[in-house]
Amino acid sequence: CNDYTNSHLSKKELIEKYQISNWTFTSIRERHNIPKRKRNAPRKNLIACDERFFETIDTPAKSYWLGFIAADGCIKRKPDKFDNYVLSIGLAIKDTNHLEKFKKDLKCEYSLKIEKQFHKQMQKFYETVYLRVPRTILCEDLIKQGVGRDKSKELKIPNLPENLLVHWIRGYFDGDGSWQINKNHLQFSLISSVESFTKEIQDFIRLRCQLDNLTSIYFNKNAWQFSYYGND
Fold first, then answer.
1. How far apart are CA 120 and CA 20, in angstroms?
2. What pLDDT sits at residue 80?
3. Which of 28, 66, 130, 150 has the most CB atoms in a 10 Å sphere around its CB?
4. pTM of whole model > 0.70?
5. What does the DSSP 8-state code read for residue 133?
């Protein structure tokens, strides 16, 4: 009764927490004369979250997560909800701990959800862990920082000082980059749906890492890509 009245837990979450049926839940509520929650009440704002986390990018952590969201996050609009914008990040189930790290930095208490997705090419289901944060202010700050709803077409490197920009690229790389061993050489690759953005990243890494050769950018499997490999 206390949880239903004072916490942000939903009816479904309370039923799971106390291992009771829907009928038992209703019976307890009515027996204690507890009124139903109002459906349109903005209960989601009661869930802890630092919704101004991305207002100013002034730490390596903020820069890193901004880059990571640029690669693996998306902002969706839901006009029928109390919060119009929702930040959604979906990762492979093995990367659950990474979303937990993001939640910790964001001081976020929204629950992770595991869902099954069907892979058309592989013709099989696989599990994805999602974090969805329905906070419009948070999403609007992300849009102002360049991670908009059309980032797959308009993404650009943000205007950050170099000491923070390296963390932004690190975050983006963790989402859309890869390391692998190829014929006893270490290979670095990065992909993006935006050709001009891919060139920006390539130029920055080439100058920052003092790479003499300008490797080619090519289109592969619906994305632009470049790679570097060798022993250096």
1. 38
2. 56
3. 66
4. yes
5. E
